[in-house]
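Morning F.,

Quick status update on the modeling queue. The single chain you submitted on Monday has been processed. Sequence for confirmation:
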Amino acid sequence: MLSVASRTSTAVSAVAGSDEDLLERMRCDDVEAYRALVERHIDHAYAVAMRILKNPADAEDVTQDAFVKAWVNRQRWDAGRAKFSTWLYRVIVNRCIDKQRLVKTEWLDDVEEPAADVDDAVTVIHRQRVYGRLDDALHRLPTQQRVALVLSYYEDLSNIEVADVMGTTVSAVESLLKRGRKRLRDLLRQVENDVRVGLGD
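C-alpha coordinates below.
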Protein backbone atom coordinates (compact mmCIF):
# COMPACT_ATOMS: atom_id res chain seq x y z
CA MET A 1 0.00 0.00 0.00
CA LEU A 2 1.33 3.42 -0.91
CA SER A 3 1.81 5.88 1.93
CA VAL A 4 -0.03 9.17 1.55
CA ALA A 5 2.88 10.98 3.11
CA SER A 6 5.29 9.72 0.46
CA ARG A 7 2.98 9.61 -2.53
CA THR A 8 4.55 12.61 -4.23
CA SER A 9 8.01 11.05 -4.09
CA THR A 10 6.96 7.60 -5.21
CA ALA A 11 7.86 7.06 -8.82
CA VAL A 12 5.10 5.18 -10.53
CA SER A 13 5.09 5.03 -14.28
CA ALA A 14 1.90 6.22 -15.91
CA VAL A 15 -0.38 3.38 -16.89
CA ALA A 16 -2.82 4.22 -19.64
CA GLY A 17 -6.44 3.25 -19.39
CA SER A 18 -9.71 4.16 -17.73
CA ASP A 19 -10.50 3.24 -14.15
CA GLU A 20 -12.57 0.36 -15.48
CA ASP A 21 -9.60 -0.91 -17.51
CA LEU A 22 -7.32 -0.73 -14.48
CA LEU A 23 -9.89 -2.47 -12.28
CA GLU A 24 -10.24 -5.24 -14.83
CA ARG A 25 -6.47 -5.71 -14.79
CA MET A 26 -6.49 -5.69 -10.99
CA ARG A 27 -8.87 -8.65 -11.09
CA CYS A 28 -5.98 -10.49 -12.73
CA ASP A 29 -3.70 -9.44 -9.85
CA ASP A 30 -1.96 -6.70 -11.85
CA VAL A 31 -0.11 -4.73 -9.16
CA GLU A 32 0.98 -1.99 -11.57
CA ALA A 33 -2.64 -1.31 -12.49
CA TYR A 34 -3.42 -1.03 -8.78
CA ARG A 35 -0.55 1.40 -8.24
CA ALA A 36 -1.76 3.50 -11.17
CA LEU A 37 -5.28 3.61 -9.74
CA VAL A 38 -3.93 4.68 -6.36
CA GLU A 39 -1.80 7.42 -7.90
CA ARG A 40 -4.78 8.66 -9.88
CA HIS A 41 -7.14 8.99 -6.90
CA ILE A 42 -5.11 9.23 -3.71
CA ASP A 43 -4.84 13.02 -3.55
CA HIS A 44 -8.59 13.56 -3.83
CA ALA A 45 -9.30 10.73 -1.41
CA TYR A 46 -6.92 12.13 1.19
CA ALA A 47 -8.31 15.66 0.72
CA VAL A 48 -11.85 14.46 1.41
CA ALA A 49 -10.76 12.56 4.52
CA MET A 50 -8.75 15.55 5.74
CA ARG A 51 -11.65 17.96 5.25
CA ILE A 52 -13.93 15.70 7.26
CA LEU A 53 -11.54 14.63 10.03
CA LYS A 54 -9.07 17.55 10.15
CA ASN A 55 -6.42 15.18 11.43
CA PRO A 56 -3.55 14.19 9.10
CA ALA A 57 -2.84 10.84 10.77
CA ASP A 58 -6.50 9.80 10.81
CA ALA A 59 -7.01 11.01 7.24
CA GLU A 60 -4.02 8.97 6.10
CA ASP A 61 -5.30 5.88 7.92
CA VAL A 62 -8.73 6.23 6.33
CA THR A 63 -7.26 6.76 2.87
CA GLN A 64 -4.96 3.76 3.12
CA ASP A 65 -7.77 1.59 4.48
CA ALA A 66 -9.93 2.51 1.49
CA PHE A 67 -7.28 1.55 -1.04
CA VAL A 68 -6.45 -1.65 0.81
CA LYS A 69 -10.14 -2.51 0.63
CA ALA A 70 -10.07 -1.84 -3.12
CA TRP A 71 -7.25 -4.35 -3.55
CA VAL A 72 -8.69 -6.98 -1.20
CA ASN A 73 -12.05 -6.84 -2.96
CA ARG A 74 -10.68 -6.60 -6.51
CA GLN A 75 -12.11 -9.98 -7.54
CA ARG A 76 -15.62 -8.90 -6.58
CA TRP A 77 -15.60 -5.58 -8.42
CA ASP A 78 -18.66 -5.07 -10.63
CA ALA A 79 -17.95 -2.41 -13.25
CA GLY A 80 -21.65 -1.87 -13.87
CA ARG A 81 -22.43 -1.18 -10.23
CA ALA A 82 -20.83 2.25 -9.81
CA LYS A 83 -17.89 4.37 -10.85
CA PHE A 84 -14.74 3.62 -8.88
CA SER A 85 -14.52 7.23 -7.69
CA THR A 86 -18.07 7.05 -6.31
CA TRP A 87 -17.30 3.78 -4.52
CA LEU A 88 -14.06 5.27 -3.15
CA TYR A 89 -15.75 8.39 -1.81
CA ARG A 90 -18.40 6.22 -0.16
CA VAL A 91 -15.76 4.13 1.61
CA ILE A 92 -13.83 7.24 2.67
CA VAL A 93 -16.96 8.91 4.07
CA ASN A 94 -18.06 5.79 5.96
CA ARG A 95 -14.58 5.29 7.43
CA CYS A 96 -14.47 8.93 8.52
CA ILE A 97 -17.86 8.68 10.20
CA ASP A 98 -16.74 5.51 11.99
CA LYS A 99 -13.60 7.24 13.25
CA GLN A 100 -15.57 10.19 14.55
CA ARG A 101 -17.93 7.89 16.39
CA LEU A 102 -14.95 6.39 18.11
CA VAL A 103 -13.65 9.70 19.41
CA LYS A 104 -16.73 10.99 20.08
CA THR A 105 -20.59 30.89 3.06
CA GLU A 106 -21.90 33.74 2.46
CA TRP A 107 -19.74 35.41 5.08
CA LEU A 108 -16.69 35.02 2.87
CA ASP A 109 -18.20 37.44 0.39
CA ASP A 110 -18.21 40.09 3.11
CA VAL A 111 -14.54 39.67 4.02
CA GLU A 112 -12.63 42.76 3.03
CA GLU A 113 -9.96 41.88 0.51
CA PRO A 114 -6.56 43.56 0.75
CA ALA A 115 -5.90 46.38 -1.69
CA ALA A 116 -4.35 45.38 -5.00
CA ASP A 117 -1.05 47.07 -4.18
CA VAL A 118 -0.62 45.36 -0.80
CA ASP A 119 2.46 43.19 -0.46
CA ASP A 120 1.91 39.62 -1.69
CA ALA A 121 2.94 38.16 1.68
CA VAL A 122 0.20 40.11 3.44
CA THR A 123 -2.34 38.89 0.88
CA VAL A 124 -1.28 35.30 1.44
CA ILE A 125 -1.55 35.64 5.22
CA HIS A 126 -4.99 37.21 4.88
CA ARG A 127 -6.24 34.39 2.69
CA GLN A 128 -4.75 31.78 4.99
CA ARG A 129 -6.66 33.29 7.91
CA VAL A 130 -9.90 33.33 5.93
CA TYR A 131 -9.48 29.71 4.83
CA GLY A 132 -8.43 28.75 8.35
CA ARG A 133 -11.64 30.19 9.76
CA LEU A 134 -13.64 28.40 7.10
CA ASP A 135 -11.99 25.05 7.87
CA ASP A 136 -12.51 25.52 11.61
CA ALA A 137 -16.17 26.35 11.10
CA LEU A 138 -16.62 23.47 8.68
CA HIS A 139 -15.26 21.04 11.26
CA ARG A 140 -17.84 22.21 13.80
CA LEU A 141 -20.76 21.23 11.58
CA PRO A 142 -22.69 17.99 12.15
CA THR A 143 -20.94 15.18 10.30
CA GLN A 144 -23.59 14.64 7.62
CA GLN A 145 -23.72 18.35 6.77
CA ARG A 146 -19.94 18.54 6.64
CA VAL A 147 -19.70 15.51 4.36
CA ALA A 148 -22.30 16.93 1.98
CA LEU A 149 -20.54 20.29 1.78
CA VAL A 150 -17.11 18.74 1.26
CA LEU A 151 -18.31 16.49 -1.55
CA SER A 152 -20.36 19.23 -3.20
CA TYR A 153 -18.05 22.24 -2.95
CA TYR A 154 -14.55 20.84 -2.53
CA GLU A 155 -14.91 17.79 -4.77
CA ASP A 156 -17.45 19.40 -7.13
CA LEU A 157 -19.80 16.42 -7.16
CA SER A 158 -23.38 16.87 -8.33
CA ASN A 159 -26.21 16.42 -5.83
CA ILE A 160 -27.01 13.11 -7.50
CA GLU A 161 -23.41 11.93 -7.03
CA VAL A 162 -23.34 13.15 -3.43
CA ALA A 163 -26.55 11.25 -2.74
CA ASP A 164 -25.03 8.12 -4.27
CA VAL A 165 -21.89 8.42 -2.14
CA MET A 166 -23.84 9.09 1.05
CA GLY A 167 -26.46 6.45 0.36
CA THR A 168 -29.35 8.87 0.60
CA THR A 169 -31.76 10.81 -1.61
CA VAL A 170 -31.12 13.96 -3.63
CA SER A 171 -33.72 15.84 -1.58
CA ALA A 172 -31.92 14.82 1.62
CA VAL A 173 -28.64 16.10 0.18
CA GLU A 174 -30.27 19.40 -0.78
CA SER A 175 -31.57 19.73 2.77
CA LEU A 176 -28.15 18.93 4.24
CA LEU A 177 -26.49 21.52 1.99
CA LYS A 178 -29.06 24.18 2.85
CA ARG A 179 -28.79 23.60 6.59
CA GLY A 180 -25.01 23.25 6.37
CA ARG A 181 -24.59 26.55 4.53
CA LYS A 182 -26.78 28.35 7.04
CA ARG A 183 -24.95 26.85 10.01
CA LEU A 184 -21.61 27.65 8.39
CA ARG A 185 -22.59 31.29 7.86
CA ASP A 186 -23.71 31.55 11.49
CA LEU A 187 -20.46 30.07 12.75
CA LEU A 188 -18.34 32.32 10.56
CA ARG A 189 -20.23 35.42 11.67
CA GLN A 190 -19.69 34.40 15.28
CA VAL A 191 -15.96 34.02 14.64
CA GLU A 192 -15.89 37.45 13.02
CA ASN A 193 -17.67 38.98 16.01
CA ASP A 194 -15.29 37.27 18.43
CA VAL A 195 -12.31 38.65 16.51
CA ARG A 196 -13.75 42.16 16.62
CA VAL A 197 -14.38 41.90 20.36
CA GLY A 198 -10.85 40.65 20.86
CA LEU A 199 -9.52 43.65 18.96
CA GLY A 200 -11.60 45.98 21.09
CA ASP A 201 -13.97 47.11 18.33
